[in-house]
Amino acid sequence: MNSMESMFALASEADDSFSNASTWERGGQLWASNEQRTLTCCRVVDETHDVKTFEFRVGDGLPVRFEPGQFMTVSAIVQGQAVERCYTISSPPTRPWLVSITVKRVPDGVMSNWLHENMKPGTLLRAYGPSGAFTPTAAPAAKSLYLSAGSGVTPLMSMTRASIDLGLNRDVVFVHSARTPADIIFREELRRLVGLSPRLRTYFVCEGAGDEGWSGPTGRLSLQLLSQWVPDYAEREVFTCGPAGYMNAVRELLREGGHDPARYHQESFDIGAGIAAEPAAPESTAAHDTFTVKLARSSKAFAMSASETVLSAARKAGVAIPSSCSQGICGTCKTKVLEGTVDMKHNGGIREREVQKGFRLLCCSRPTSDLVLEL
């Protein structure tokens, strides 16, 4: 095993070594997914007319360890309000001294517009540590199929860059969908990477030809087109990222084509879409039940209804707990429950081994008894 490959092995071992699966060793320090650090912008790259890549170094100049496909939650004060958004790390972990996010400017997107208008070399940005389970290290395979649309290309680009850097010689087919040829993010780099790896193939499909002399397929990805490009798609581990509608369509397309759902993986939130609505309370919850929540470190306490999530109740009580997606996806609010029980309905933001160690996602946990939290 060479030094680059051992980096991924160490990242996987870190999951067993630390109580938080999203905590990685950084030059003797720990950067947990619920801990903020300062990033310094080093470079801004125009990818398309409305997409930019922002490259950062960590304030202390130390390397960052993460897995390809993971994301960070960045924070900024925009028009006097604190705003947090999740963005996938588009750079590979094989280049740990620079961490980049690739952001599409969205109409009315508070954070994306702020980044496009304000971020330049030397600008500081606060961010929480890497997090997320959408990574090929969780489902290693000899043959993979990457399906993306729009800015959903970013986690798959990190995976592809890492695989090329490591010389893993994996059989990867990368199919990307875009509105027009001008909207294809990383188009030229992907073409260059194909030249570096004979086992990497890329295909693009555009909704319209735009102003270019586009000779490729137009419309949307279909089972017929996928079968033509990737006849053995049913044998591949599939990783998908893009708008929710795209991922739903792809999942149905693969189901129709006989692909095993157990070999399908998708990023579960719209990148950069921001904090989502809090999950609804189960109808069976007895709203009149009231419980007490105590914080072991700060000695604070507050009362809450059984119909609320612990995160929501903590905010009402003035207790600041790091969070981002609020849907049990990102893992930012992961906290150890020292005493008591909760009903947790998460969406992949926590692993079973963490649950066994007593951790819960407060954004999607409702109390079923009095609680003592490690806060």
TrEMBL record:
Obligatory cofactor(s): FAD
Keywords attached to this entry: 2Fe-2S, FAD, Flavoprotein, Iron, Iron-sulfur, Metal-binding, Oxidoreductase
Ranges for domain 2Fe-2S ferredoxin-type: 291-375
Similarity comment: family membership: In the N-terminal section; belongs to the FAD-binding oxidoreductase type 6 family.
Species this protein is from: Paraburkholderia guartelaensis
Domain FAD-binding FR-type, first and last residues per copy: 34-137
Protein name stated in the entry: Hybrid-cluster NAD(P)-dependent oxidoreductase
One annotated GO molecular function: 2 iron, 2 sulfur cluster binding
Statement: the UniProt record of this protein carries the keyword Flavoprotein: yes
Superkingdom assignment: Bacteria
